Each structure stands twice: as structure tokens, then as C-alpha cells.
Amino acid sequence: MKRLSRDAWLALLLFLLLTVVTAVSVVQQAQASLQDPPLASYSTQPQGSRALWLYLESQQVKLTDSVGTAFGVPSGIDLALVLEPTVAFTPGEWELLHSWVEEGGTLLLAGTDSVTIELAEQLDVKFGLAPSSEAAVTNQTPLLQTPPLGSLSAESSFFLRPERNDFVTLLANRTGYPTAIAFAEGNGRVILTTVTGPFSNEGLQTVGNPELVLNLLNAAPDGRSIWFNEWHHGIRPEVDGALTSSNWLQRTPVGRALLLVLTIIFIGLVLRGRHFGRPVPLRKDVVRRAPLEYITGIANLSRRAGHRTAVLHHYHDRLKRDLGARYRLNPSLPDEEFINQLASYQPNLDTDALRQTLRKLSQTNVSESEMVQIVREATSFGEK
Question: What is the mean pLDDT of residues 178-197?
């Protein structure tokens, strides 16, 4: 078995390294194209909440979704929105958020996934699952009338089972189980709901859902400054100088060494390159087309395009130029005036025949055979 040469091994190594880099890029693109978290304020997908952000902006509400290097509620915030969190709260993060509520903040927690259920249990509230036929929700308190609510179209298959007695039911399903409650927590307030559809881009387009969202937000004592918690949607601040798979080659000694090795291998392969084979000369007996074939081809194209009127117009102008050239007559003169001036120089001119020939050359709708006959007459007339 023939062994591979050194150049072949270098080429194979270069190919493998390029394959690894390409695979890393593909993985990064695949991760970037993943679906956004549900009810993320930056997401324009149907289950995002970018429309909610724009809707609250139109209501002159101060909004922010800022995240710091560590989790924390920004200063000056009245209402914290935690909508369908997908990243679990650590004990320290929950303690920080709970302390902020007890100091006078308002928390609106909406969701039905495991993270929301775990947070609700920290507040002594459990979840239950209702049949789909009982998912429709109704208003249960006059507090939700700012702005006025009509018939609700929101639904929720989950309901709440509070293990505390200091809550107010805001919404309930058909069997009377609460789907949205509010209760005091220290000096602050918590609004907990399993109804998430009205907060989404798709759900906010349904009639009555914008008013329902505003009512839930207005249940807070003062909700003019709202913070969207994107930390628990996986959003983290970019740290300057942080290494990623895209900048590893440029920022680490190993990566830079690898780039240098690849460059040297590439230069070596280029300098040691060989021809694939001996050059083959071109054949000398090149067959070319005769000039007459091009003229015939152009004529056939003109015939197919039906340029008969243009041909007659050409011979019409050419006949007048040939006849008037001797006496310096203007060929652009009208036919009748041209014939009269030409007859004054040529008394023996057959004016009737010339007038008839020019009239035929001025026709616009003739067949090919008629065109040939007319051109023959014009040519013979010019040769007299």
C-alpha cells in the first residue's frame, strides 16, 4: 500500500481544521436561529411580547428591560413584569426580588411552566389543571374596570389554588377557580395569573385583551414605571473581552498559533504546487464561417421580424436621393414637390410612373412577394 506524501498529510490536516471551524460556525448559526423565549419583550414572534412593549409605550408608560452584570431590579421601578420565565430563579435571586416586593414594589407574575409554578409555591400558591371546556375566564371584581371590560375571550387551562386567605380573585374560570389573584406581600403587592395569551403579540390583537392587560397592570398602586425581567429569559450582558467560539482563534495564544500554522501550510502548498498535466496546444485548423453566412443570417432575421415596411421606406428614401443627387434636390421634400422640381430639370421624366412608384414604396401593409416586386420596380426606375 502506497504511503501518503508529506504534502498530502498537510492538505488533509488543513481540510480537517477548516471542517472544524465550519462546524462551529454552523452550530452558532443554528443556536442564533432558535425560537425566542415566550413573552420576551424583544421578540416579534407570535408568542413574544414586543407588541405589549409598544402598546404600553403608546400609553405613556416608562419602560425598561435593562440587565446588569448581576440580577437586580433597576432603581425607580414601580412594577416588575415576570412573564413566562424560562430560566429558574436561584435562591439569592428570588430573595432579592421578594425583598424588593416587601419594600413596596409590585410584582406581576404570569406563566404556567415549571419556573412559574416553583415561584408561586414560594408564595403559598399551587397550580391546578382544569378541563379545556372550563378554560374560559371571567371578571370577578369591580377592580378590573379601568378601562371598562366587555366580554373576555381569554382562556387558561390552569387555575390557582392559594393556601393563603389574604388574596383577591381578579379572574376565574367557569368552575369558579381563580386564574388571577392579587395579594399584599409586606409593603408591596403580587399579582399572579395563569392567563398569558393576552400578553403575547398574537393575543394582544384579540378584541378585549388590551383592556384586560391594562386592568391587570392598573391593579398595581402605581405602575407608571415598568421593568420587563429578561434576565430569566436568558438575556445576559456582554462582557468585554469574553471569549467565544468566534473570537477564540484571535484572542488566545493557541488560536493565534493555529492560524500561523495554517498560513505556513497554505504558503507551502502554494509554493510546492505542480501542474496537473502537460499543456495541450489549440488546433490550428480552426473552421470559420464565411462572411456571406452572416449577411444571409441577418437577412433571415429581418424577414422573420417582418421588417417589410422599413425596407420599403429605405428604398423610398434611396430612390429620391439617387434621382435628386445630380441636381442637388433635397430628398426630404414631400413626394409631389420633389417630382415637380425634378421634372423642371428633366423634361422627359415620366412623372406618373415615378409618382406611382413612390406611392407603392410608402405603403405600410404589404406581403413579402409584393415587397420584392415593388423594390424591383424602384431599382429598375433608378437605373433608367
Answer: 93
Q: How many angstroms separate the CA atoms of 340 and 353, rounded?
A: 13
**What pLDDT does 47 receive?**
92
**Does 37 sit behind a cis peptide bond, omega within 30 degrees of 0 on the bond before it?**
no
Name the helix (H) or strand (E) containing 117: helix 114-122
Does the pLDDT at position 240 exceed 60? no
Nearest C-alpha neighbor of 176 from the set 216, 121, 136: 136
Q: Report, as an integer, the average pLDDT of 241-260.
A: 67
Which of 152, 163, 290, 254 has its CA nearest to residue 210? 152
> How much of the chain exceeds pLDDT 70, in percent?
87
Sequence-ordered list of residues with C-beta below 8 angstroms from that of 153, at least 6 positions apart, any chain: 206, 207, 208, 209
pLDDT in tens, 46-76: 999 999 999 888 888 899 988 888 898 998 8
Gap between the Cα atoms of 189 and 170, Å rounded: 14
- CB atoms near residue 124 (< 10 Å): 12
> What is the sign of the dihedral through the CA atoms of 203, 207, 211 and 212?
negative
Q: Which pLDDT score is estimated for 101?
A: 93
Give the residue-averaged pLDDT of 329-353.
Answer: 87
Question: In 18-124, which ranges are E strands?
Answer: 62-64, 79-83, 106-110
Q: Specify the CATH number for 50-233; select among 3.40.50.880, 2.60.40.10, 3.90.78.10, 3.40.50.300.
A: 3.40.50.880
Phi/psi of residue 170, nearest 5 degrees: -95, -45
pLDDT of 15: 72
Sorted by where each begins, the domain ranges of the chain are 9-23+254-268, 50-233, 293-382
Using only C-alpha atoms, the chain has a radius of gyration, in whole angstroms, of 44
Please return the burial class of 282, using the count of CB atoms within 10 Å of its CB with bins 0-12, 13-18 and 19+: exposed
